[in-house]
Amino acid sequence: MHIKITYVALAAIVWLGSTAHAEEPVSLAVWEREPYVGKNLEDQGYAIKVLKAAFEEVGLETQLTFQPLPRARESALQGIVDGYFPLVIHSEDDADFLLSDPFPGGSIGLLKKKNSSAQWPSPAPRTLPEVQSALKGYRLGLVSGEDINSLFENAPAIQKDYVRTDLNNLDKLYRERIDFTFMDKYTAADLIVLQRPHMIGSLEFIDPPLLNTRFQVGFPRNKENHFLLWQKFNTGLNILQESGKLDLIMAEHGFGQKPTPPPSKTILTIGTVNNADMKVIKELSSRFTKQYPDIQLDWRVMNENTLRRRLLSDFAISDGKFDVMTIGTYEAPLWAEKGWLVPLDNLPESYDVNDIFETVRESLSYQSKLYALPIYAESTMTYYRKDLFAQADLKMPRQPTWYELRDFAARLHDPAKNIYGICLRGKAGWGENMAIITTMVNTFGGRWFDNDWIPQLTSKPWIKAILMYKELLNRYGPPDVTRNGFNETLKLFAEGHCAMWVDATVAAGLLFDPKQSSVHDKVGFSAAPIGTVVRGANWLWSWALAIPESSRNTEAALKFITWATSKEYIRMVGTSNGWVSVPPATRQSTYEHPEYRQAAPFSEFVLNAIQTADPVNSTLEPKPYKGIQLVGIPEFPSIGRAVGLSISEVIDKKKTAQEALKESQQLVQQQMRDSGYYQ
Fold first, then answer.
1. Collapsing DSSP states into helix, strand and coil, what is residue 587?
2. What integer pLDDT is reported at residue 90 of this predicted model?
């Protein structure tokens, strides 16, 4: 294969790896290249969503098989599949494969450690000889065998240091054993976030990138249908590009460039979560831009897991993409301590910050300074179908136990009628399945760490909690439960498919809303369930808006976040969307509206759950961390995700609970050792 690498904007690095079949569905062999392609990514990654969407535009479904790159290519050559995806290095001519039109991928460039002695010229070099000259005398980390290394082969003045993996280069860069490394921007960010969280904020990606990558599908020329599939994919891809759908897919996965502002306008790039309250803010934001015509809003709406990953990756490589970030009670104090957030200590008097409940203010503060403004606050509660309980002659206790919920679920489970005994989050993620699991562990007497930071994941409380979780979901839960996070489970309950659901109190406003819930008049509620301990059952959380220190538009950002969290905004939502749907539990003034108290019979219950949640005393035995459903340390997104993935394999019956917890114990202990908690 003849490989050609084009410098800077002309680069076309493509990845092959989907399997396509001669008949529908199109079968494609795919190889993993996170964060763009991966079995454990949302939608299996941005590139896979584009791939599927392009074929869907022309009426074709896809069937994907994940394989290592050499096998994926070989499967296509042997005719087992119709193609493979993604090509990483663009080939202009390929004797074996007809290559599709490309679509945007990542960006490859140089990373360095902040404040190191290595200097990069300003303005940045634009040509390859200029880049080679700027690297003269420096130690450059490269991965052995990569085709892109050819950029530096004819530059003997550069001290090239070869390693096996990108992660090896990040380690060496952090320890200053090399001066620069050359790798994909978001690959670097994700490796840091997921495997080296102690490095977050220590490295920076140098703009502009040296290579802009592109992805392509390879269709084997020896397949009779290769030209037809090539045509169809290209047609579908063109539709995505022309309609703007491709840009939307990129945005919802946290990719894509920040738009260039038109003259006399400020563009605010907002990274936010795809939940109901943020969608309402987006819908009503035209009123903000009417009030401030010089401000334009660039929305990046992502699911919960993707948002958290992209926001952290923004700090991991000092990218500075966002002006407004949607964060929570976990991030606000930690990120403020690291100096990543703008303190909000000069809010206008009209904002009335003291109207925000003290519990919520404190959870978003660091050293008595507020760093994020709350959209809503939540705790946990048990939702149940009053009609189904009445038909079965059951009564929900004011303080149920997990054992009682298991017995109720067994009585009410009726999959033949599409009614499941209990619904719980099953999607892997520290804020998804691990949120509910950690509260279960608390109430069975467990904790994440002892006072010496030794993980306790193989302890009896953890085993009891995971076995209970597994029994509930495998016996009485909906199908494909490991795909269900908060939004998916909310939809199941609102459509009448769940007899019970344990989750966030914020869902109450949606479930009692006749415009959004088919069971709005059949919903009952009770306290979050316990195991054997009445501690740590109901969590404390708030989604909130913050301004990163890297934003160059802090004045405009402050106008937006104060508008979107103000008393006036809450009144606007109540008037336009109905009082039952206003953001709950942030302001005293909300509860002074008689319209809200009448529309929301759950309001006082929810407020009490939030105000009694105790992030300090949430476990039976002492713990060195703050948090109920989370651990307030920088490593938690990494270890929480890893443990969540392992437990999802228990639900999918790929591992036993004991195997998953043993593996998790070892992984978490190694991460804590790597982060310097102990030797």
1. strand
2. 52
The residue among 32, 5, 21 whose CA lies nearest residue 55 is 21
For the CA atoms of 309, 313, 315, 316, the dihedral, rounded to the nearest 10 degrees, stands at 130
Alpha-helical segments (H) within 211-350: 226-243, 245-252, 276-291, 304-316, 331-337
- Greatest Cα pair distance in the chain: 82
Residue with tokens 């990120």: 335
Q: How far apart are CA 521 and CA 519, in angstroms?
A: 5
At 168, the amino acid letter reads N
Q: What is the pLDDT of residues 182-230, one digit of tens each?
A: 999 999 999 999 999 999 999 999 989 998 889 999 999 999 999 999 9
What CA–CA distance (Å, rounded) separates 565 from 559?
A: 10
| Mean pLDDT over each residue of the chain, to the nearest integer | 93
Q: How many residues does the structure list for the chain? A: 679
Q: Which domains does the chain have, with CATH numbers?
A: 8-102+216-252 (3.40.190.10), 106-211 (3.40.190.10), 266-375+547-577 (3.40.190.10), 380-538+620-673 (3.40.190.10)
Q: How far apart are CA 149 and CA 160, in angstroms?
A: 10
Give the model's pLDDT for residue 89.
60
The pLDDT of residue 9 is above 60: no
- Between CA 308 and CA 431 the distance in angstroms is 9
Tally Cβ neighbours within 10 Å of residue 367.
9
Query: What is the C-alpha separation between 194 and 292, in angstroms, rounded?
Result: 39
Over range 251-260, report the average pLDDT.
86
pLDDT for 411-424, tens place per residue? Answer: 999 999 999 999 99
pLDDT over 70, % of the chain: 96
CA–CA distance, 149 with 182 (Å, rounded to integer): 9
Residue that has been written with the tokens 């200053």 in this structure: 176
Question: What DSSP string describes 9-60?
Answer: EEEEE--B-----SSSSEEEEE--BTTTB-TTSGGG-HHHHHHHHHHHHTT-
Question: Residue 557: what are its φ and ψ, rounded to 5°?
Answer: -60, -40
Structure tokens at 71: 């096998």
Residue 553 amino acid letter: N
CB hemisphere CA count around 362 (13 angstroms): 11
Would you say the pTM of this structure is higher than 0.85? yes
> How much is the average pLDDT of 389-408?
98
CB 441 within 8 A of CB 498: no
Q: Determine contact, residues 50/12, Cβ cutoff 8 Å.
A: no
Cα angle, residue 500 at apex, residues 497 and 501 outer, rounded to 5°: 95
Q: Residue ranges of the alpha helices (H) in 477-532?
A: 486-494, 507-511
Q: Name the pairing type of β-strands 62-66 and 26-30.
A: parallel
Q: How many CB atoms lie within 10 A of CB 595?
A: 14
**221 to 28, 95, 99, 539: CA distances (angstroms):** 15, 8, 10, 57
Give yes or no for residue 94 having a pLDDT over 90.
Answer: no
For residues 520 and 512, the answer to whether their CB atoms sit within 8 Å is yes
Alpha carbon 635 to its chain's center? 15
Nearest alpha-carbon partner for 134 in 174, 94, 180: 180
